[in-house]
Specification:
The complex is a heterodimer. By secondary structure, chain A is mainly α. Chain A has a single domain, classed as Transmembrane di-heme cytochromes, Chain C (Fumarate Reductase Cytochrome B subunit, Up-down Bundle). Chain A has helices at 23-47, 62-90, 106-119, 134-163, 168-173, 176-180, 183-214, 220-225; strands at residues 17-19, 227-229. Chain B folds into two domains: 50-225, NADH:ubiquinone oxidoreductase-like, 20kDa subunit (Rossmann fold, 3-Layer(aba) Sandwich); 231-311, Cytochrome-c3 Hydrogenase, Chain A, domain 2, CATH 4.10.480. Chain B is built from 15 helices and seven strands. Chain B has a five-stranded parallel beta sheet with strand order 2-1-3-6-7, sandwiched between helices. Chain B starts with 6 loop residues before the first helix and ends in a 6-residue tail after the last helix. The chains are: A mainly alpha, B alpha/beta. Chains A and B meet through helix 2 and helix 7 of A and helix 12 and helix 15 of B. The structure holds protoporphyrin IX containing FE (2 copies) and iron/sulfur cluster (2 copies). The site of one iron/sulfur cluster (SF4) has 15 residues of chain B, from helix 12.
Amino acid sequence: MNSNVASGPHDPANQKAVYVFEAPVRLWHWLHTFSFLTLAVTGYLIADPLPSPIGIPSDHFLMGNIRLIHFIAAYVFAIGFAVRIYWALVGNRFSREIFYLPFWRADWWKDLFYELGFYLFLIRKQHKTLGHNPLAQTAMFFLNTLMTFFMIGTGFALYGQGLGEGSWADQGFGWIIPLLGGEQATRNWHDMGMWIMLVFVIIHIYMAVRADIIGRESSVSTMIGGWRLFKDDQP
Amino acid sequence: MGIQQTFYEAMREHGITRRSFLKFCSLTAAGLGLGPEFAGKIAYALETKPRTPVIWLHGLECTCCSESFIRSGHPLAADVILSMISLDYDDTLMAAAGYQAEEILEQTIAKYDGNFILACEGNPPLNEDGMYCIQGGKPYVEKLRRMASHCKAIIAWGSCASWGCVQAAKPNPTRATPIHKVITDKPVIKVPGCPPIAEVMTGVITYMLTFDRFPELDRQGRPKMFYSQRNHDKCYRRANFDAGQFVERFDDEGARKGYCLYKMGCKGPTTHNACSTVEWNGGLSWPVKSGHGCLGCSEDNFWDRGSFYSAVTDLNVVGQVESRADKIGAVLAGAAVVGVAAHAAASVISHTKDNNKGGDSHD
Ligand code: HEM
Ligand code: HEM
Ligand code: SF4
Ligand code: SF4
């Protein structure tokens, strides 16, 4: 079956519970969440630092520690994402959903507009979805997957400048800097990327909690335990 | 001006003593970060190699590169190098003028075709067929193209020649264009800065004349020996940065104590230059040492990047509109929160209605 939408009474989507998110996907989700939040808080404090501590500089390492936490979280964020990409290759079909958009499928577009109508209160009846609905998938693809690549790319490019010319990060990612118009521009875009991801996160958390409360299927608990539970057995 | 004249002979002709010549060689070796054994190598090269002529052209510019160059901290270096290059053509520094001066260009092409270095200060404006910069009755861009087609290599002096600089600022009415975008078939070395540091300029040109090649370049075509690090990496206020001690106003306690200027918009963290190590005016000072942030003058587009006094600057996407990432971002995030709240309220209302109707929606 191709579509995520239940099509008939014998469709697995009409069962009461389906195993959707495998353990590595769930683990990654929460690793991704906490490393992102750490990166956003420390990143914000890099762009707009805290008030100065009093005393001689050798007594403090405030900015240094904030940057250090940013870089440690950055490694968690990047390595976690690399493992997640690996899991997309070997995991179940839901594990691939955030990495592509099946725009060549007419029913995907139909579902996309159906969901849009639903969230705009134009359609009353909600579809049941096994993995991500097309609207969520689109948002995740552009605002999370692509932005994660972008943040890792620009982040390690900047990091390479600190490590030094010819360092691994400079060799692997340094080419991004002239592409964006220099290091200051790269920093500004890295900063912008944080806000774009933050917009996704605000809407994403709202949608997840909303789906849990008034949706037809389990949501947050699915990302914790892996099982999608349906609250009714209608198609 | 004999064809086979060596650098050494040219210098002697200009009254440089052998003693000064040798001093210059060791100074240069040290300045380029080469070992002491290189002093001998440089001396040998300059004594035996035929002199490579340098033609120094001026496009749209303010001449600050020349000003910086002739004020090199080591007067010896300036003397020696000027005697090596002013022999040929530099319309600001040479004695010849008018037709006599322009003739030197043709003579150089005739005598040293494919064998001279073209040093470009400033850039050509391309709009209206280059009419915004006329020299000797012709657009500068034509002169540049003609000389470039016969030269061996090009030095792009300063941010004008390297990136465009203020005359290329939006909306760039004359279409001032950096050298590497006009001349694409010759190797170009960028020595950016507004102006570049004198020692950096003399270092680069001496390296090229003695070793007959460019020093190692970075990804953006700048010599690594001077541009591989950011001012921030060697700044003496870096300890204050790491401690988190920042100047908040130019007249506050932090400013008096010499705290880091990051919050005042110092662009040291993103500016590749040697200011924090070589410094200016013979190692006397540099902006941060005098209490002001770095403007990022050696970086591409620094003139259009937005405020010199804030750490986060413009994204340069929406034309003249204020486009700082943190401002756009805060608006976007605010809008998302408001949108979510509105949608949540609407959801509660419609859900309650549906439940009352015993409708299709489920819980
Ligand atoms: C979603 C993840 C991330 C977010 C939200 C984020 C956020 C930020 C923000 C807001 C800044 C300040 C930019 C400015 O000054 O305008 C920053 C700086 C920086 N980030 Fe990230 N970042 C993320 C991922 C990464 C990654 C993966 C790396 C890789 C090592 C990284 C490395 C850096 C570096 C090197 C800086 C410059 C800090 C300095 O040199 O002082 N970031 N980040
Ligand atoms: C407390 C905060 C969060 C909660 C409660 C939450 C909840 C969820 C839930 C319930 C799902 C499953 C969605 C579905 O059934 O279609 C999900 C998926 C996802 N979430 Fe979150 N999330 C949170 C934070 C974040 C953050 C901060 C990010 C990104 C920076 C994020 C990125 C994602 C992604 C990419 C997926 C898709 C996972 C996959 O298919 O591999 N989440 N989240
Ligand atoms: S004054 Fe500027 S260059 Fe120096 S440490 Fe602070 S931000 Fe970096
Ligand atoms: S400190 Fe910055 S603005 Fe000043 S000359 Fe150096 S690079 Fe240019």
